[in-house]
Write a structure and sequence with these properties.
about 290 residues; alpha+beta; Jelly Rolls; 4-stranded antiparallel β-sheet; 10 helices; 12 strands
Length: about 290
């Protein structure tokens, strides 16, 4: 699968595109079955009571359909179309969301040098008041994101305050209404949020990173990649422990998956200082690329 020229233009200019009828009925049934298995496993550790979000790493052998999703051409071909042939998968997740999601951007993008694409899909219809994704169009672009990241109530230090949560529905944005079978593809760097959604919203995602090309991008991904190659134990959500190791073992002997594992390992093993740059972190965890010396 490839995006049409119009879809590709929309993605690059605005940072997102809605893909209708992305899954067929049989695939939706497999998704629901895997989701229920993961939810039951998590509930054996911590019963879900509707007050706290639960996240499931779906790359393990207990959820084979989710684990296979990144290797479906409709996912990786779009990622490669947008971000080059070395774009690599790094997650297939499911969530039981509770309530709103504040304005944020995703993995590695705090300095615009770690980026890629996320495909998000829901197991129930969502709109502007029930947890649909909402985006600030164009906010994946560097100069615009810099302004937004320093503007209340979007960026730090404001975005984890009551002011930020209360302002979710008042920020000018585009709301993507979608339902089971649809997917929303968006740039990891774009500012996004959700409003509403009740106490148990079933959402999932598959994500890919762009393989870095510039020294700034390489240094950023050198920091990010090890987190996906050698994840530590999770005290908050122990049901995810060991799941990524199953995916990294690549028992299906998938050539495509192995190429992604090799990319993650390659980036994880870049020697410190090789790029002549380093990451400098502020007290909120956001990073800036600066000279190594």
């Amino acid at each position: 699968m490839r995006l049409t020229p119009e879809q590709e233009t929309q993605f690059k200019a605005f940072g997102f595109v809605v893909l209708r009828d992305f899954f067929d009925a049989d695939e939706l049934e497999a998704i629901r079955s895997d989701f229920d298995l993961a939810a039951a496993r998590a509930s054996a550790f911590q019963p879900f009571d509707g007050t706290k979000m639960q996240y499931f790493n779906m790359l393990g052998e207990e959820t084979p359909f989710y684990a296979s999703l990144p290797e479906l051409p409709r996912f990786y071909e779009v990622a490669e179309q947008l971000f080059g042939g070395r774009a690599f998968a790094f997650e297939s997740n499911a969530y039981r969301y509770v309530g709103d999601t504040r304005w944020h951007y995703n993995d590695g993008s705090s300095n615009i040098n770690g980026y890629g694409i996320k495909f998000q899909f829901a197991l129930q219809p969502v709109d502007g008041s029930s947890g649909a994704l909402r985006f600030i169009p164009g906010s994946h672009l560097g100069s615009y994101q810099d302004v937004l990241a320093s503007t209340p109530p979007l960026g730090r230090p404001w975005y984890d305050t009551a002011q930020a949560w209360e302002a979710i529905d008042s920020i000018p944005c585009h709301v993507c209404e979608y339902g089971p079978g649809d997917a929303v593809a968006f740039d990891l760097r774009i500012f996004h949020a959700t409003w509403g959604g009740g106490a148990d919203r079933h959402m999932s995602c598959v994500s890919f990173f762009h393989y870095p090309e510039t020294p700034e991008e390489i240094e950023t991904m050198r920091d990010i990649a090890p987190k996906y190659l050698r994840p530590g134990p999770s005290t908050a959500m122990p049901w995810n422990d060991g799941v990524r190791a199953q995916w990294l073992s690549n028992r299906p002997r998938s050539a495509k998956r192995q190429s992604w594992i090799d990319a993650i390992e390659e980036l994880s093993n870049i020697p410190e200082g090789q790029t002549g740059l380093r990451l400098e972190f502020d007290r909120y965890g956001s990073s800036t690329v600066v000279p190594a010396s």
